[in-house]
Amino acid sequence: MTQDAADWPARADTAQRALSDDFGTRFARLRYRNGSRPLSVRPFAFNYWWFAHLIEARVDAFERSGDEYWLADAERVLARLRRRNGGRLENDYFDDMGWLTIALLRLHEASGRGPRLDDAIELWGDIRRSGWNDLEGPSMAWRRSQLDYKNAPSTGAFAIASALLARLTDSAEYDEAARESLAWLEARLVRPDGLVADGVNRLGDGRVDDEWLFSYNQGLYIGALVASHARSGETAPLSRALRTASATLARLAPDGVIAGENADLHARGGGDIGLFKGVFVRYLGQLIERSDAAGITSGGDAAAPVEAARRFIRRGADLVWAERARTGSLRVGDDWSRPAPPVTALSTQLSAVILLETRARLT
Question: Is the pTM of the predicted complex or chain greater than 0.90?
Answer without folding.
Answer: yes
